[in-house]
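thought: user wants a sequence for this fold. calling inverse folding tool.
action: design(structure=
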């Protein structure tokens, strides 16, 4: 209890200093979608809205490692209720999936990322996700631990963003950006990589994962989540911040500009956010947590406005 109160006090102090940053956000409340370490949410990809427009469908990845364990689920999120349906993984099983993103302009296609840097191209139809192909990220180095992946489409050009999550004061996150294309047989292909270091404004201290997920708004703002994890039973702490901007030129050149002092948009004591997905046509983000033995939660929050 003392640790939990200390976390809340630290968050309140930061918000006092920043003035306009909200404590959490007011678009919704956390809703439980998993009850144990195998059902937490490590990444989310928007799939579409429900027929009545009141809810959203999103694919969720789980960071399970053993053969036969669930890798992918479909979440139907509405304020006040959530439904979770398993998706069958058809193909080589990944170890420790941490992120997933819809491929712009390719309905039913997604890229999912495992923590060691393997990218899986998926074709989702009904309740099955078929592995079309897979490939490693470029430039993987020893010790890299990836939890985030986002795609940007501009003028017919695609770019990918991903990050080594970093760890505490001595290891900032490394945000990578690259043009993206696909080989005729389906394999993702990455171009020249731009790298930038990133340090979260909150949370701070030992064990901080400076980037636990990435999403990009329609105007090119880079929205990131950051988190701390003291163990399988917590305590946890998280924030979502405006990290900077990304642009993609008509020639496909990718440029990333990170803020010297990221703006904290919301803090979330007691939760470990590992998924942030800006919802198209809305200022809302869908957030997901992997709270280890405490399960997983989702909610919306107004974090993605212009």
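)
observation: tool returned 306 residues.
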């Amino acid at each position: 209890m003392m640790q939990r109160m200390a976390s809340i006090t630290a968050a309140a102090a930061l918000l006092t200093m920043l003035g306009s940053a909200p404590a959490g956000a007011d678009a919704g409340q956390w809703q439980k979608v998993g009850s144990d370490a195998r059902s937490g949410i490590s990444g989310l990809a928007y799939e579409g809205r429900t027929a009545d427009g009141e809810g959203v469908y999103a694919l969720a990845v789980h960071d399970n490692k053993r053969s036969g364990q669930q890798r992918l689920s479909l979440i139907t999120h509405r304020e006040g209720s959530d439904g979770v349906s398993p998706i069958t993984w058809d193909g080589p099983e990944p170890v420790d999936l941490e992120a997933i993103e819809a491929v712009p302009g390719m309905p039913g296609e997604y890229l999912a990322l495992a923590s060691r840097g393997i990218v899986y191209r998926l074709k989702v139809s009904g309740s099955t996700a078929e592995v079309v192909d897979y490939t490693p990220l470029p430039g993987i180095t020893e010790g890299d631990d990836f939890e985030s992946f986002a795609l940007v489409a501009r003028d017919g050009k695609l770019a990918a963003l991903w990050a080594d999550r970093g760890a505490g004061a001595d290891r900032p996150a490394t945000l990578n950006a690259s043009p993206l294309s696909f080989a005729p047989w389906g394999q993702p292909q990455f171009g020249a990589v731009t790298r930038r270091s990133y340090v979260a404004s909150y949370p701070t201290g030992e064990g901080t994962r400076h980037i636990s997920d990435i999403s990009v708004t329609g105007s090119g703002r880079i929205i990131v989540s950051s988190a701390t994890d003291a163990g399988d039973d917590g305590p946890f702490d998280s924030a979502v911040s405006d990290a900077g901007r990304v642009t993609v030129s008509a020639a496909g050149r990718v440029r990333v500009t990170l803020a010297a002092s990221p703006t904290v948009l919301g803090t979330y004591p007691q939760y470990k956010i590992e998924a942030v997905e800006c919802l198209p046509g809305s200022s809302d983000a869908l957030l997901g947590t992997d709270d280890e033995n405490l399960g997983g939660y989702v909610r919306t929050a107004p974090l993605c406005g212009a």
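thought: summarizing for user.
answer: Here is the designed sequence. Residues 1-22 have pLDDT under 50 and may be disordered.
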